[in-house]
Each structure stands twice: as C-alpha cells, then as structure tokens.
Amino acid sequence: MRICVCWPAYWVFTVARAKPGLSNCWMLSTSAVIVFFIGMIMGYRTEAGLFGIIQAVLLLNLFAFGISWVFTTIGLLMRTPGAVMTLSWLFLMPVTFASNIFVDPATMPGWLQTVVSLNPVAHLVTALRAVLEGNATLSVIAIALIAPAILLAIFGPVTMLLYRRQR
Predict the structure, then answer these.
(1) Which residues contact 9 (CB under 8 A, 6 or more apart)?
(2) Banded model confidence at residue 1, pLDDT cuts 50, 70, 90
(3) Most buried one in 17, 29, 63, 107, CB count within 10 A?
(4) How many other CB atoms are found less than 10 A from the CB of residue 143?
C-alpha cells in the first residue's frame, strides 16, 4: 500500500484498499497535479488551459498503466524488492535519457536520432507537448499509446499467469 503525504491518510487508505490500479492512478495524478502547480508558480502557462492539463494527466495515466505490466511481471519473477528496482532501473534509465525529454533530437548524432524516433517515451513526450500546446492530433496521441497497448497485450496475460501460479 502506498501512502501519499499530500492527501489525508484516510482517503489514501480507502483508495489503496479499493484497487491497486486505482491507487496507482491516484498517486500518479496527484504527482502530476503537484508538478503542474509548481510549474505554474514558476511561470509556466499551457496554451490548452485546464482541459489540456486534464488530458495530459489522462494520457500519462494510460501510458503508465500499459508500461506498469512489464514491472509487475518483473516483480513476480524476482525474489527481492532490490532486484526488482535494479532491473527496472536498467530498463527505465536508457528509455528516459535516450528520448526527447531533455534535449532536442536534432542536436543528436544520426544513430541516436534513430533510437529516439523509436523510443515510446519520446512519443509520449511529443504527445504531451502537443496536448499542452493545444494542437494535439489523434494520430500523435495514438502513436504515443501504441507501445503501452502492445506491452499490455504481451505482459498482461503473462502477469496473470505468474500471479495464478504463485497463489
């Protein structure tokens, strides 16, 4: 069960008991709202307004839901939480840093531009930027959600099989 210090504990416990997925969605949404709030204090203004922020948080949650099945499978396969964290970080580090989050891909070498163009996190970042700028298209959002959908289709059944075997 996860505890978030920014909301009353009784609400977090109620959500966490209801469904783990709902609890994770609540935690991610709360984190995103805090980041947007701090950004707005620092002067960030989105072209899409509140509706764009809601769309961005929804897109983040959909992406995280699809990707989370990979880590759930890893968690069921590994024996210790430390091993899960290490293996998860080995996956997340290159996917995060070999993307367009921090640097414009146009400034990267050609081979790295190719890697970034295939990176699902880069597609998510592009979609989020488009949503917050108010010029998102359905194709940009669909491209961002292809990888999580594929991972859900592969790792969802594997996770369920592993979970049933452990019970």
Answers:
(1) 3
(2) very low
(3) 63
(4) 15
| Distance between CA atoms of residues 65 and 163, nearest Å | 17
Taking only the tens place, the pLDDT of each residue in 82-124 is 999 999 999 899 999 999 999 999 999 999 999 999 999 999 9
pTM of structure: 0.82
Residue pair 136/127 in contact (Cβ under 8 Å)? The answer is yes
Q: Which two tokens stand for residue 52?
A: 């764009």
Map tokens 């978030």 to a residue. Answer: 4
Distances in Å between the alpha carbon of 76 and those of 22, 38, 40, 89, 163? 20, 36, 39, 16, 7
In this structure, the chain runs to a length of 167
Alpha-carbon dihedral sign for residues 25, 28, 30, 33: negative
Dist CA 127 CA 130 (whole Å): 5
pLDDT tens readout for residues 17-50: 445 666 778 888 899 999 999 999 999 999 999 9
For tokens 């367009």, what's the residue? 100
Q: Are 120 and 100 in contact (CB under 8 A)?
A: no
Q: How far apart are CA 49 and CA 78, in angstroms?
A: 43
